[in-house]
Amino acid sequence: MLIPFSWLSQYVDITLTPDELAHRLTMGGIEVGDVITRGGWEGCVVGYVRATRPHPNADTLTLCEVDPGDGPPVEVVCGAPNVAAGQNICFARPGVALLNMHTGRREELKPARIRGIVSEGMICSEAELEISDEHEGIIVLPDDAVAGTPLDDVLGDTFLELELTPNRGDCLSMLGVAREIGAITGQPVLVPDISYPESATPVAELARVTIADPDLCHRYTASVITGITIGDSPLWLQDRLIRAGLRPINNVVDVTNYVMLEFNQPLHAFDLDTVADHHVVVRRAAAGEKFTTLDEVERKLSTDNLLIADPAKAIGIGGVMGGANSEITPATRNMLLESATFHNLNNRRTSTDLDLRTEASQRFEKGLRPELAPIALRRATQMILETAGGEAAAGIIDVFPDGDQPVLPVPLTVERLRQLLGMDLDISRAETVLASLGITTRRTGPDSLEADPPYWRSDIAIEEDLIEEVIRIIGYDEVPTTMLSSPIPYHQGDAMMALKDNLRDALSAAGMQETISYPLVSPDDLSRLHRVDDGHESLLRVANPMSAEQDVLRPTLAASILNTLAYNRGHNDGGFRLFELGRAFIPQDTGLPQERELAAGVMCGPRYDANWLSDSDALDFYDLSGALDTAFTRMGITVAYQASDSSLFHPGRCAEITVPGGEPASIGTVGELHPDVCDAFDTGPDPVIYFEVRLHDLLAATRDDGSAENRFQSLSRFPAANRDLALVVPDSVPANQVQHLIERVRLVERAELFDVYAGENLPDGARSLAFRIRFRAPDRTLTNDDVNRAINGLTRVLDREVGATIRE
Amino acid sequence: MSQHATETPSPASISALTTRALEELTALPDAESAEQWRVNYLGRRGHITGLLRSIPQLEPERRREVGTQANLAKNTLEEALARRVRELAEAELAARDALDVTLPGRPVIAGRLHPTTQIVREICDAFIAMGFSVIEGPEVELDHYNFEMLNIPAGHPARDMWNSLWVDYANEEGQQPMLLRTHTSPMQARVMEAQEPPVRVVVPGKCYRYEATDATHEWHFYQIEGLAVAEGITFANLKGTLYEFARRVFGPDRQIRFRCDYFPFVEPGVDMSISNFVDPSTGKRPINRDEDWIEIMGAGMVHPRVLEGVGYDPQRCTGFAFGMGPERIGMLKYGIDDIRHFYRNDVRFLRQF
Asked: A-chain residues within 8 Å CB-CB of B99?
């Protein structure tokens, strides 16, 4: 919404600078996005075109004799088609700085010889004055402009660009903004007189109105004017509309727009002679009814749309747009002027369904009060009489089915003010503020009042609304600053949130970088993950996706993190160790989807940046499983890996991550991604190691075995004995099985695998696993015999359980 | 050796001997020659030993003087030798084992948390210190919680403030009731439905809007919602709480300011700004933006209709709510110029935090 000061100041004196005013309005809730000043045309004046004659050497040029007001007339060459004798125009003398249309810069205007004739200045278009891009025609100033007046005084202006919240539709009008300014500065607001001379003919003899659907039209007021002459509006009126951003059309339509911008009430003018029986019927559209709006588009309607009709046909869509069949034309002589109140939500639905957002609908949808309709109607009738002539019938048509229901006053008490704001405010102070906003109040007790919501404010309905009115004008700086003193509620910490925080810390401590990505992915991404179409679970889609890339709520984090990896590989050198905690969305039969908390990560690229101490081999499976071990150990969780199989992974390089317990629970997978998947995501030549852990499963598993809970274990005072043992083990036996067998033996504190060997001197199908085994007793120093007996027992167990022998 | 026996020791000769011995010691190149030196001076047949042995043959009146002098010389040389031996040993270690300490160290890989995680934690910690608990909620929400319970009925023009991404799912009535939550505010209703007052929570989480992205807008972003409801909670408490938050996150000299704003689920509704005045001592603003005041969050007193909706009595209980974007807070704190950096996950960006 653009508010020109030149218009606004008709209703209220502006006593603040534009910037101060903008600030104060913004603090009070009417946000001023920008203050625009137009002018600064030093040396430009109003000129009067005394006479014109054709340029002898060019058909499209005109020679104009311009009176600059303060000296003898000068001759100016003008190329605009609309220049004519008798016009007041914007005249720029040589020496004035103007926008040069050819260079795009402000430059000094010089006397120029154009086709043999010297032009002693320029008649300006909006483009040269930087008002708009319009450069086809010159600006024609109002007739009452005086030659020689500085142009800044005539065309210069300041504009407030408002960014309004939906509750303050009242400030889509000059009077609405003027009332805000009045409340801020204490200046009185002048509301225009709305009276006009009425003819002897009662309006009821000329037209009538029926509201068939009063739920959608609360009030319909109308006046009838006969004998009007359609033409252009006076220049001052056109000028105001243009400054506010509207296009002048004709005197009647311009007045309806003008009054809309003045009072906020949209109006519509019908050619009365096109209305059958001079009878307006406000009714729902029939299902499938077709109607051609003013913009010459035929629209198909439903019974949710409200029509303005006559007994024979529709003539407008209520509160949205009129019809081509009843609009004001140059031939119109008699008119019916509508000022009505439509149901805001229905109006919004209609304009949304028809994709027809108009100046009218954006006002109706925010809710207008029925008291406003007759006021704006009388104002517009008065102005049409002034600009288009004719006679107004006596009285107005006013159909107001609920008109006898009084508007409820809104209470306000000092007690509630204190309860809500935490400050003491006198009721008289509240009264003063409300009065400055034009809100009428009455005392109902020593510390209470009631207020009548004014007809221009539809957003004031409850006591809290009034409290906001009071404090927003006083300013929030006056409210004291105090700490909460109410009791702190008890809160049982959320185990999942704690787990997520711990896991983030643990994974980053284990060398991994956290990422956060969009949970919407493309179907293509998901198909890239599934080399074989295994009929993946049903997906949740967005009904109105912004792009095909963001169409599906992800069922896995894999696609997101692989895209992150691929992006980074294009921009950075490796190696990458990335992880993310996020949600996957699994549709349910009814209701909200299951939001599955997941952790996922990748490793890819060289293990270290090039350096002189460590290798730069590619990161592999054991880098990631090692990092996971570190992370889980830090959290007090023991995990194990079991060979597994999945189409996502390289055959033979995939493991199920389990938490041991009575029943080992699977919590996720880790493995080297299948080369086809890497190719599909373009992750480069290095292997990509990926893990995904299901946090709900992890939480359940750790709760079951209690391992997440730290329990102190006493430290033995006695020394340990270490023995290295190389075992020959069949290939089919996983290393961790051997380790668990060793660690289950009495006196064994810990076994560490330090060498794996296959090849010479070993039987086919077997490998050597070398363990450093630490023995310790809690209550004594172990003897050699103790340790030897333990090793004997251990070898018997290993032989029996997995066919392992000690390597000689 | 013969001269030892023939020469009569005197304080002057002892002093000369000591001086010569010390000079030789300083010039010794290694531990081996030091041993040779020890034998030469302090050994069983060394100069000093010989000197001490010759004392009994002196006239009685000189024995004491020369004896003291000789013992002193012995101690001096023994100490000097020990010192020199240590020096030589250190020099030898240095010559053999010195490192180029400027070579790069052995790499250890450390990860980091995403900047959003860090900022969210910092903000939540500020409120935890004021007795707030942290909770989370669903990212796919029902229209009922995202809008209806927040005093934003269907068709309300305020819905334009939240362009929504709807989930492609229709219920039995043919409605599309699910969307990606447009704010964390639905948790206001959920938490109040689940418990009686007092309530004091902050809710961090992802939100989504149908919105074109640019340097200051993302369609996917985080929000941190705050809610405190109990008997006696006032707007003054809201100011105190947010003032304390601003000091903790942006430093102790921070001022805050409120202006009227509109959110359908609060009344009165406000927008909070933090001060960013030029510091006279540096000539710079604490936050690198050319504004005295920077808006950082919406807030207000919980609307009575929201309280009624969850079964609270708005005449008895009052409360405040606020909501902020942690990315914006982070951008202000760290001078990040484009919100799109956050979820592009370029490690060059992520490693800076």
From this structure: none
